[in-house]
Amino acid sequence: MAREKVLALIMAGGAGGRMGPLAQVRAKPALAYGGVYRLVDFPLSNCVNSGISDVWVIEQYQPNSLNDHLANGRPWDLDRLYGGLKILAPQQGGSEDGWHQGNADAIYRNRQRIRDFAPDMLLVLSADHIYKLDYRDAMDRHKERDADVTLVTTEVPVEEAGRFGVVEVDSEGKVTGFEYKPDSPRTGIVTTEVFVYNPSTLLQTLDELVAESGGEEGDSLEDFGDVLLPRLVSDGRVYEYRLDGYWKDVGLPESYWRAHMDLLEPDPALSLEDPAWPILTYGTHRPPARIHETARIENSLVSPGCVVRGRVVRSILSPDVTVEQGASVIDSVLLGTTTIESGATVERAIIDKDVSVGRGARVGGGSDVSVVGRWSEIPEGTTIAEGAQLSPHATNDDMKEASG
Q1: Vertex 145, ends 206 and 155: CA angle to 5°?
Q2: Among 243, 250, 321, 397, which is most exposed with the fewest C-beta within 10 angstroms?
Q3: What's the pLDDT score for residue 377?
Q4: What are the two backbone dihedrals, phi and then psi, of residue 116, each rounded to the nearest 5 degrees?
Q5: Domain 6-262 CATH superfamily
Q6: Whole-number mean pLDDT of the chain?
């Protein structure tokens, strides 16, 4: 029997506006996680570990930051003569040209490529969620039920569910109701932005929705939850596949910070050290981290290239971070090529790459998460001035003043 043909689409085009300065200079999927990884590494690694070798990444916002990391698919063994990794970007000069107005619209504008590829199943994935999943399990369940679409779901507190697509299901796992980012969610069961589609049903439904809107382009489609999934749910062939393991949406600085702190739990729900399910990434050669005799490190992850002479507690340091003697980093996430100078304190904060925190300065503290990054008004190589005080509620103007 011929093997089923599976195509994975990784949706990596969003601007990530809710991430503030962390997404000003890069695509959100290119944002670092766990020191040495990037967010996009998770769907890519899940695909490879699930035996899926045809993977297309749909880009739009800040594509260069993502392309530098993707490296033609080589880190995931996707740099192949036939199949492998393909990059899809917005285009001009044809019937499918124009900027993507959402993830459903992005698929519609690439509909002819998908038809030409002729997959038996279409796996559609977000590029910026943290989880491990063998997609074959969800695809097997999809095939057993002869579904039009299978939504991989998880359960979150009801008070948080309004950030996502919220579903209602019956005892057989059939989706009986769907609301996209409702003000008052009725359940805590939400989509994980992992979908298994019947390709012909998906493309036909997109064509119908565009025709009904009276337009020739897909602008009216926007995101999956706006019109596509409600239509498919109303047609009655939508089922869930429940993901019971760890899953984290990192669309807000607070959730991004929390996902890092989860790695430091005594028995973390997400292991980055499982040889049976490796998270693969593109890496450059760096020397081992140098831990000086004056350093004090507690329950932290320290990446290659780091130099630590100060105190690091419950924190994650990306490559090439320097913590000078007399400096303290507590409950924080430091991205690459960052320097914390002597006497400075960083607490409960996210510090972007290429930032220096000056001598005696203090960033963060309290119950909220501080974010120090490069807004469009603040150039690369930002330095928080000596002795500056940045609270968790610092504004963009405060940041500009503190950076001189």
Answers
A1: 80
A2: 397
A3: 52
A4: -65, -35
A5: Spore Coat Polysaccharide Biosynthesis Protein SpsA; Chain A (3.90.550.10)
A6: 90
Cβ–Cβ under 8 Å, residues 290 and 306:
yes
3-state DSSP: the chain helix, strand, coil percent, rounded to 5? 25, 25, 45
At residue 19, what is the residue type? M
Parse the chain into domains and list their residue ranges: 6-262, 290-402
Distances (CA, A) of 274 to 26, 270, 279: 29, 9, 8
What band does 299 get if pLDDT is binned at 50, 70 and 90? very high
- Long-range contacts of 166-171, Cβ-Cβ distance < 8 Å, separation of 24 or more: 166/190, 167/191, 167/240, 169/240
Nearest to 166 by CA among 131, 192, 146: 192
Name, in order, each residue with C-beta under 8 angstroms of 358's C-beta and a sequence gap of 6 or more.
341, 344, 383, 384, 385, 386, 387, 388
- Tokens representing 182 are 């409702």
Find tokens 């766990």 and name the residue: 34
Q: Using alpha carbons, list the distances in angstroms from residue 221 to 112, 177, 186, 343, 346.
A: 17, 19, 25, 53, 43
Residue 230 CB-density burial (10 A; 0-12 exposed, 13-18 middle, 19+ buried)? middle
Structure-block tokens of residue 101: 């107005």
Write down the pTM of the prediction.
Answer: 0.93
For residue 38, what are its two tokens? 């990037």
Place of tokens 């949706």: 11
Amino acid identity, residue 373? Answer: G
State the DSSP code for 226: I
Q: Which CATH superfamily is domain 290-402 in?
A: Hexapeptide repeat proteins (2.160.10.10)
